[in-house]
Structure formats: structure tokens, C-alpha cells
Fold:
Amino acid sequence: MPLTRQKTARPLRRSADASSSTVFARPTVLALALHGALAIGAVALPLPALAQSAPANAPPAGDAVKNFDVPAGPMVAALNRFARTAGVNLAYDPALLEGLSTKGLSGSHSVATGLSLLLDGTGLEAVAQTGGGYQVRRATVAVTLAKVSVIGQADGIGGLKGTYSGGQLARGGNLGVLGIQDLMDVPFSTTNYTSELIANQQGLTVSDVVMNDASVRTLQARGGYGEDYQVRGFPINARDVGVNGLYGLSPNTRMPLEMVERVEVLKGPGSFLSGVGPSGSIGGGINVVTKRGTDVPLTRLTATYMGKAQFGTHMDVGRRFGEDNEWGVRVNGLLRDGEGNVDGGNQRVGLGSLGVDYAGARLRWSADLLYVNNETQEFRPQTAFLAGITQVPKVPDARKSYYPGADMEDQSKMAITRLEFDITPDTTVYGGIGYTDNTSEQNFPTASSRVNSAGDFTVRNGYYDEYNKTLSADTGVRTRFKTGSIGHTAVLAASKLQRETGYFYQLTDAPGVASNLYDPAPLPTINFARGTPTKSAESELSSLALVDTLSFVDDSLLVSLGARNQRINQKSVNGSTPYDESAVTPLVGVVVKPNKNTSVYGNYTAGLQAGGIAAPARANAGEVFAPQKSNQIELGAKYDWGRLMTQASIYQIERPNSMTDPVTNIYSFDGEQRNRGLELTAYGEVTRGLRLMASAAFNDAKMTKTAGGVNQGKDATGVPDRTFNAGLDWDTPWVQGLSLNGRVIHTSSMWYDAANTLRMPSWTRLDLGARYKTTVADKPVVLRANLENVTDEAYWVTASGYVTVGAPRTLMLSAQVDF
Structure:
């Protein structure tokens, strides 16, 4: 993953005349000593009227784009904060500002536009000076801002693409072997969520964020034992969530967000881009990007509450050092404890993370350490329905566990580092390596007889303990060159993932204890000792990829051609049959840009998952099958309206399924599921202070080949026909600093069973929220309140083969203070 950052222009040096009544908002001497060229504090220094020219090392020009967070309040404090963030010198007469206040400023703006917005309605204006900087004076002509163009934030530290209008999503993200790309330049559909959105929605885990896209649904509910996702109708395991571009490093259960800057979602198979994940997910890819030290020093304390009685404290500290702020440090610490939205339960989360990076002119390096410990009592369980029932059981009380006494503890320790070096301006070598050690201990009840229409079942209790140790790495060389008028960006890359997994799994004796969803019986007593997990699986995933992106006609036509040879080696453990096979996944991608705001694309690529070995009872016992490719064809279009980004795509994914022929008893991968879909997305700031996220997905998932033709042509299980999302975030005009937001999430009905006899009902969830930005004792403060599932909708969260009760109405509060 590239690690680049732009240098910030150095602020003006001090020039003072004690007799002048004009003051100058500018960096402190201490800040200059610590952070070189970047302004982090502002003080008032007496200066002469700024008719004279400023020094040659002037501040950024008026069209430089910055990301601002200036709270409502007194104008003097607001202008000082603005000057610190922008890195500009700002002169003003205190008498002009006496008694004036501002509505504040948030989001990405040019320096000139930001000043105009802060001074809107005051009769003052900011005039650029000949040598640099700005002076506030009385407006010679009344200023009316009928239309303000917000173009988004410039690319930042770590090579992150700048935010799009509104600040909730970014202009692009990491696409593995293709590197960090602008979304208009790639033949894929992606969404890239920012830390601003995470904070304003009070997201705790990846599920909270990816649910903003109608093409993505989570397969667990808040308070469950872990997280899984569904993209384009196919599941993604939590272990396939990438961290800074590397697979296999995320925790077993859920990825916390306190140390995350971005959450990036790729729709469609991603095994060519980053290699096959440990669970072989094919519907799409999710990658999280860790936080980096900030140019403007950050010391942020956030206190949180989640009903009924869960309290938390999160500290986030970021700094940069060096002459050009090359060195960065980011530290996050979290402790959250108490009862959440399951009665009588308790969830305790402890997190500590450290990120260090160096961003030089030719060399970029980063390192991250993460420790997470989760202890959960009464987690939200999952279950399965009895085959043959035709009536869906009524949803039980979402605040109660129908497996009373279930608990778990999991730990994750992760270390990851990346390095990138420019051999020449056009050739870069890169590499990354990470290691994780994950453990979990679960008191994990299991329904030995499935739930019938009346909610009856029998339950057994037991232990389900696991560990996995994973080493993940990638390396490559990227070079740019031309052959005649054709530009090339060629990449040769390799990846490797080694994982060892161990289990201890034992249940109480059959048949178990009779119970009911609505009146659960106490779980059976575990009458055996807890064992130690022993190694049960050892695997190695390796690949070699080559891709060339050709550019024609001034980059208005981009063609990507590539192939990745991937090897899946599952070693023999405890007498298991070894598996060692390879396959090639292709990429053909085309992007046509008839103008700078339009991008039309198409791709052909494939996902990859391990093949199988025919069991001893089959006619072809012992036959080994190569990794199975899930082929995707996709066409799409993107249009940037300036404030609003719109995307549309149609796709088809064909996934082979294993099956045994009922006549010949031959095991094979001749089965097939075919998912077709249409996706529509829009996001941005539709007008000043009103931000939108909306999406819709229409799915047609069919079983096109089945054993003996049984159920052939029927709908695939657990895939909704339609999903819709709509969210608004609005800065109110009547209260400075107050913003309101709302989100509607709808999932249509879907089939639970392959015979299409039991159909799960649709559900709609409404979330509402508010935040208030202000200043207390000269410290920026943000108060947030979010109410999830406002109507307390009772619904089943449905996956292929199991269900979970959706989370009830849940209140979340937080108070954020910057020191």
C-alpha cells in the first residue's frame, strides 16, 4: 500500500511592530520547533498594516484545499483555529471582530472559500495579500454566497485519497496490486468510508459502517459473537477482512474501529487484486486502513455510553515531527465495559494500538501494533430452523438471549509493517509483512434439534475454543513507461499467507435439554474439563501476479490486463488428506472517460476458493479438485456532478458448488449458483450543509445446476431480492453547530431453504441521530446521540442456513473533546 504525503507550504515568519493595532493569527514558536513547517497553534502578534509584501515563503494559495473542523462560537477564536489548520497568516483588527460570532465550518474547502464562509453575513471580507496571507477588512461590496463549490480534500498522509464532497466518503482507495487509485480510474465498483462518517455514526465495528451500502448486508446483529458480511449475495468471513492491504490479520470475531481511518469496500471478486483470502470469500472485499499521525496535533478524549449501561473511554493522540513532518505517531487506547442491548449481559472491550510512520520524498515506511481483548457474557445467539416447516417462528424478544449463560473471550495481537521506495521517479518497490495471534474461548450452546414453527428446540452446551497464527506478506515492483503514445503502468507482485489453526470442541451428551425461543430453559451443565486446542489445520496460500494498465488518448481510455497464479496448499494434520493445487485468475478491465466527470467501465475477473477431495464413501474417493473459480462479468458507469457522485453497475457472478450425483455417487463441482444484479449509488453534499448517501441493489440469485436437478432454477438461500439504503446528514440553519441525521435500511424477503418453501419476511430499520459542535473553555467539543432501530423493529437477520435476532432499539451517546 503506497505511503505518500504532500508537503505543506511553510507559514510566514514573524514580523511585528508593537505600535500596530492589527493582530496576526499564526503558528507559535514552540510549534515551529516541534513541527517544522506546519502551523499548529495561533497567537495574536502585533503587526503593521499588511500593505507591504510578505516573505517569499508565503502560505498556501487561496485554492489550496484543506479539511476544516471549526466549531461555532466567537469569531476571533474561529479565525485563529482556521489559520492553524490552513497554515496561513491572517491579519485583522480586533475592533472589527468584537462581538461577532460564526456558525462554524466543517468539511473540505479551499482556504479562500473557507474564510468567506466563516465571515458570511458579517459585512467583512478576507483579502489575499500580494506576498501571501490574508487580511480581514470591511467588505467594499456586500458579499452574497449564492453558490459555493466544495470539491473535497486533497490526498493525504499514507497516500489516502482525499474526501469527496460532504466528507463521508473518499475519492478512492486501495486496490491491492493496482495500488491506491481514484475511483474514476478503475474498472470496479467501490465505496470508501472516512473516519468522519465513522465518528458521526458512532461506529464501533466494521459492520456498523458497511451497512451504509445496499449491496452489503451483515449476517450478525450488534451484540453477537462476531461478524460476517454478504456482498452481492455471497458471504464474506470476518477473517477475510484485510488490514492495510494484507489478508488474514483481522481478529476472529470483529474488527474494532478506534484505530481505523478508512473502511474500503470492493464489490465483486477480489482474489486477483490481493490474492485469495483464508476463507476464500468471493462476493467482494473489505479492507481497513489504520490511522496515522496528523499534521495538526491531535489529543482527543471521547466518552461513550450505549444502553442499557455500557460506558467507554477512548483516547486518540496523533503527532508529526521532523523538518517536513516526515515522522508520525498515532496512539489509541480504549476501555468499554457494561451491559449493552442484551439483558443481563456484559461486554468488556480493551484496545491498545500504536502506529508509526515515515513519509519522505522517496522512502515511505509504517508500522502498526494492535492488541484487542473482548469478554462477552450473553452474546446474541444464532440458530437454524427445522427442515420442512412452512411458517417462520415469531421473532423472540431481542433483549433476551435464548441461550442463557453463553459467554466468550477472545484476544488478538497484531503487528504489521510496510515499506515503499522510489528507485526512480517512475519505478517503485514495495513490500509488507504482518503477523497475528488470535485466540478465542467460547461457551457455545448448539441446538441439537432445530427450531420448529412454535419455537421449540433442544439444546446442548459445550466448549468451542480456537486459535490461529497467521503470517501474511506481499511484495512487488511498479513501473511506468511509454511505448510510443501508449502509457503503461506495469506491476509484478507476489503474496504469501501461512496459517496454523487449532480447535477444542466438545458438547454435552445428546439429545440435550428441551427449550423454547420464548421461554428458554437453563443450559445443560458442562460436566467435563476444558481441553487445550490442538493443531487441526495448516495452510499456505501463495501467488504471483503480473498486470499492465495501458493508457490511451491522454488517459481517456485505460485497459488493464493481468493474471495471478495462485496456489492453495492445505497440509496433512492428524491424518487428514493433504491438498496442493493451483489456478490462474485473470483480469480484463476497461475504463472509458469521455470527459473528466464521466467514467464507463467493464471487467472480467474471477474469485477463487479451494477445491475439495472426494470422501471415501464416494465412487471417486480421493479425487482432488483444483481451486474453483467464480467468474464475474460487470459493466458500470460513474458520473461526478461536482457535489454528488453517482454510480450504476450490472453484474453476473457464477460460483461452482460441490455436489454428489445421486445416481453415480460421484463427487464433483458441477453444481452452480448464479447471481445477477443491478446496483445504484449516490453520495455527496447535494447543497451546502446537506449530505446524502443513497443506494439500491436488485438481486437475482439462482441455483442453475444442482445434484439430480433437484431445486434447479430455484432462488439461492439467504439472498434478498431487493435492498435499499437512504441517509441524510443536515447542518441546521437555526442552531449554530447542530446537525441532524437519519438512515433507513430496508431488506426484502428471501428464501431460507433450498426448496423455496420457507420465506423470511422483509424488514426495515430506522436510525436517527444528532450532534452538536461547540467550544467549552476554548476546547472544541462534539456531543453526539444516535438511536438505532427507532421503531424497535423485530426481525430475523438471515444468512444461508442460519438466523440471528436483529438488535433492538439502542441508544448511543458520546462526548468528544480536543485538547
Summary: Confidence is low (pLDDT under 50) at residues 1-24, 26-62, 141-151. The domain at 22-138 is CATH 3.55.50.30 (Phage tail protein beta-alpha-beta fold). The chain is about 5% helix and 50% strand.
